[in-house]
Automatic annotation (TrEMBL):
Lineage of source species: Bacteria, Pseudomonadati, Balneolota, Balneolia, Balneolales
Molecular function per GO: phenylacetyl-CoA 1,2-epoxidase activity
Enzyme Commission number, as recorded: 1.14.13.149
Keyword Protein transport: no
Keyword Amino-acid biosynthesis (UniProt): no
Naturally occurring in which organism (per UniProt): Halalkalibaculum roseum
Keyword terms of this UniProt record: Oxidoreductase
Name of the protein in question: 1,2-phenylacetyl-CoA epoxidase subunit B
Class in the EC hierarchy, top level: oxidoreductase
InterPro entries: PaaB (IPR009359), PaaB_sf (IPR038693)
Length: 102
């Protein structure tokens, strides 16, 4: 049963699935599935999203546990990062002893 307050809801909780490819790239969202618990969500994710042995790691996260910004929040949420120039690589100079690649 879902954690939803609606007692008529008979669908299992929704889980978001993230997979990591073999080449060491970061995890990417692969899709969603319904499962009663984390263990079953992980097994189902393996069966659905890693059938051809293409991944090395799978994460499953309950959908209701994901907190995200919205497009309407873009200005107020991301603007504070603009006053921190040290976060950008161009803020730092390359020492003379370091050879630059062409």
């Amino acid at each position: 049963m879902s954690n939803n307050e609606d007692s008529n809801d008979t669908q299992w909780p929704l889980w978001e699935v993230f997979t990591q490819p073999r080449d060491g790239k970061p995890h990417e969202h692969a899709g969603s599935l319904h499962a009663p618990d984390a263990e079953m969500a992980l097994q189902n994710a393996r069966d659905v999203y890693a059938r051809r042995n293409e991944g090395v790691s799978i994460w499953v996260v309950p959908s209701n546990q994901i907190t995200a910004s919205t497009p309407e929040d873009m200005g107020p949420f991301f603007d504070p990062a603009n006053d921190k120039p040290y976060r950008h690589p161009k803020f730092y100079s390359v020492p003379r002893a370091v050879k630059k690649r062409s």
